[in-house]
Amino acid sequence: MSIQTRPSSTDLLLPRPGVNEQWDPHTIHTYYFGFSIPEARIGAFLYLRCQPAFPLSQGGVCIFRDTDNVEHTDIAFLDYEITMPWPSVEANRITTDNGLTIDFVEPGRAARLTYSSGDGAAALDIIAEAVTPLFARGHVMPGEEDHHGGDRTPGGSEQFMHVTGELWLDGERHAVDCYAPRDRSWNQVRVERRGAVEVPPVGWSPMYFGNDLIFNQISFEPGDTGPAWMGLYDVGDRPSHHFAWIQLGDEVRSIRRVRRNVLEYHPDIYLPMRQEVEAEDERGEFYRFRGEAIACASLPAWPNASFHDSVYRWEDSQGRVTHATYQEIWFDKYQKAMKRGRVATARFAQI
């Protein structure tokens, strides 16, 4: 599978139904940006989700710190609204009702994000500049592919960015200088109906070690690792990943196999706290990474699922270290099983 790219114009795709058109109410357009400040154990989740059938939007700014964030309201700063008007769009600038601004100063290449809370508790001003092409991604959540086709072509993209700027949190200034992914979706039908998608927890682990090694995958834990989901889902013989790639300098390769092995789970929110990732690319070359969460949180992006973000410290097989987001999502069957303690194989970290 070759990795394609998207035109820069897709950054500004926010279509809405025409007169007398009726769209699936689960149709969404999304924007995600993030950053981390490892020395302060801080992660940021900046998100906009538009629902054009209504039209409504949701999103905002979530700043989390350390690993003891069990509830959404535990995090360092939360301004996330589930119901907002359609965002304001002026030229290349998109602004939400709660004040998050995404300004594509150069679509496909650079964006400036700004925000300031009304009470002075948090503000940010960052520039995200591309260090990879704008890669095409068909879908990110399992089940979306069942709704592809029809009059409105769905799509997605993702790109690694060099993120610099400033975060002000509770009166303290933090410099931002990291490498972080951004992604988006458009015209995807992401069904929220109960039981619509039967899948184990799905984890996204982008990593940037330098221009010579950039890795990205989204997968569930394969059965041969003894995952905590074993016995809850029947995944058949399908691959554990549904999207993955690696960039080595100017060369981009697809990934044909991913084996993600979780060593420890968070005792309260069940997010993987330590894990290993092994990947094999299209040419048969292998890559191995070990990671540990230094900050994590439950976040409110998906009310029908348990969604978590984290700052992971990753190490490659040569001992190089990087930090990036690790995100995971699962549904209530898994959450209840973990809470009941029926999963005997689960390995819990000491937090």
From TrEMBL:
Residues 202-315 form the DUF7064 domain. InterPro entries: DUF7064 (IPR055492). This is DUF7064 domain-containing protein. It comes from Haloechinothrix alba. The lineage of its organism: Bacteria, Bacillati, Actinomycetota, Actinomycetes, Pseudonocardiales.
